[in-house]
Amino acid sequence: MLLLQIDWGFILEKVILIIVILGASFGVAAYATWGERKVAAIMQDRLGPHRAGPFGLFQPLADGLKLFFKEEIIPDRSTQKLFILAPAMFMVTALMTSAVIPWGPDVVTETGIISLQVADINIGILYVFGVVSVGVYGIMLGGWASNNKYSLLSSVRAASQAISYELALGLSLIALLMATGSLSMAEIVRQQHGFWSDGWFTWYFFKQPLGFLIFLVCTFAELNRAPFDMPEAESELNMGYHLEYSSMKLGMFLFAEYINMFISSAVLATLFFGGYNFPFMDNVALWLQDVLPQAHSIVFAGICVLVLMAKITGFILFFMFIRWTLPRFRYDQLMNLGWKSLIPLALVNMVITAALLLWVFKS
Amino acid sequence: MQQLTNRAVQVDRSPMTFGEKIYLPAILKGLKITLAHAVRKPVTTRYPEEKRPFSPVFRGLHVLNRDEEGRERCTACGLCALACPAEAITMEAAERQPGEESRYREEKYAAKYEINMLRCIFCGYCEEACPKDAVYLSETVMPANYTRRSFIYKKEDLLIPHPKKQEQAD
Question: Which of A42, A213, A325 sits opposite B31 (nearest CB)?
Fold first, then answer.
């Protein structure tokens, strides 16, 4: 009898990892909503939520409960199936991206090596952008199925914005990929080991500053966050594509946006800020081997995960600072910036990187 | 063109310099401003727990005063009603009977005294008009209510507690 060889330990390991990552994404996203309100408050000399629990820490729970208990309205003339599908799709694509992000270095145990990455596929970055592009369909479907002109306008805006900025995003990435020579996220993080080697910083932020800038701006646009929150545009489109949504379907849209922000921060940290790497990590690893000979690997991995989380938190805070600082772009300004500034800039960056690699570094 | 006021400011329409065109310095400037606000002390008062003190000239809910012996000061002269620009005060006078000297200060008193709080504009003219120091505006905010009728405050609602009989009245 031929039995398919199934490594149950492997499957269990991955399932646990997936559950942990999903839980972490939800947790971070929930507290990002709280954080956003707190950040908005302190920037406007206010207090922010402080009624629900200490420092208002139970506010996300209260918000979630409130959304669950709201009346669920599906508009009469909406395309009902698509109307229900849209938020689910947005949510699923938001969560899917986290599969290829390396959350920490491999943990070496007696039984084997545990990887803190759900899937180390060799086209990791491509996968991320594929999934992110599909995410726009959630918005488009939502806007179209609502059968509301504001929603439709908003989803058209979202689509054109996503397409315009994905071009610049991809072009800025090509320069990065020339430097890394690999599309695998795990490999890119491994290349950024430590902080300093061979007389220069290892993190790609210091090797690709212009690329990082373009990538960052495009990330803002991809996330539909201020100053690029054109699809939402409270003042002109009345919340845009989720205008007709109510109850938890609205909650899904709002929540998925925060999950997107979390994942995008993770991608930014992974690609440009060394992922889980931190300065003097080799010294810390050696020191841990002396102090905790049995569990040094898992403790070290824990520290690395915390470092990555700190970087992600930093990026999320930066997203929030920007949101409460800059006013929204006008639509033509947005298109001008995307097509006339960022794409040429990304092309120039690409050419410079290529020239440097070819003639100066000879790699 | 001649300017009407000297406050007009000429808008600078010169083309943007390179530094302005790349936005980044302006964004950093903006971030500096918002982050400076982040370290500033919030101006919020947590209302039910902490209350801002009223100013000494605050005009709140009306109070009908008594004298030191607990007798009502109001003589129902009607000057407050006359002074009231919102016509919120109505009253009916009655004559003091023998034996009521401990309740009313003068020979005439207000049998009925009503202020419609929905009409009142809290201008304090009644307080100024009163020759007997009987009505004055306290430092209390009018509480909300469900019916219009409950906003017409009767004499019982307005009288301050008797200094001897109801010392611990709310």
Answer: A325
Dist CA A70 CA A72 (whole Å): 6
Task: Give the whole-angstrom CA distance, residue A36 versus residue B134.
Answer: 54
The closest CB to that of B43, out of A39, A45, A321, belongs to A45
Q: Which two tokens stand for residue A150?
A: 């504001």
- The Cα A63–Cα A259 span in angstroms is 16
Residue numbers in A near B44 (CB within 8 A): 45-47
- As a whole number of angstroms, the distance between CA B125 and CA B120 comes to 11
Q: Do A43 and B43 touch (CB under 8 A)?
A: no
CB pairs under 8 A between A and B: 37
Nearest residue to A258 via CA among A326, A189, A307, A312: A312
Of B24, B27, B40, the CB nearest to A45: B40
Angle between helices A8-43 and B24-38 in degrees, nearest 10: 80
Q: Decide if B27 and A41 are in contact by the 8 Å CB cutoff.
A: no
Smallest CA–CA distance from A45 into chain B, residue = B42
Instruction: Say if the ipTM goes beyond 0.90.
Output: no
Q: Report CA dihedral (A11, A12, A14, A20) to the nearest 10 degrees.
A: 160
Could you list the pLDDT tens digit for every one of the 363 residues in chain A? 556 677 777 788 888 888 988 898 888 888 888 988 888 888 888 888 888 878 888 888 888 888 888 888 888 887 888 888 888 888 888 888 888 888 878 777 777 777 777 777 888 888 888 888 888 888 888 888 888 888 888 888 888 888 888 888 888 888 888 888 888 888 888 888 877 777 777 787 887 888 888 888 888 888 888 788 877 767 777 777 788 888 888 888 888 888 888 888 988 888 888 888 888 777 877 888 787 777 777 888 888 888 888 999 999 999 988 888 888 888 888 888 888 888 988 899 989 988 888 888 765
B41/A47 Cβ within 8 A: no
A162: closest CA of chain B, how far (Å): 21
Other CB atoms within 10 A of residue A169 CB: 22
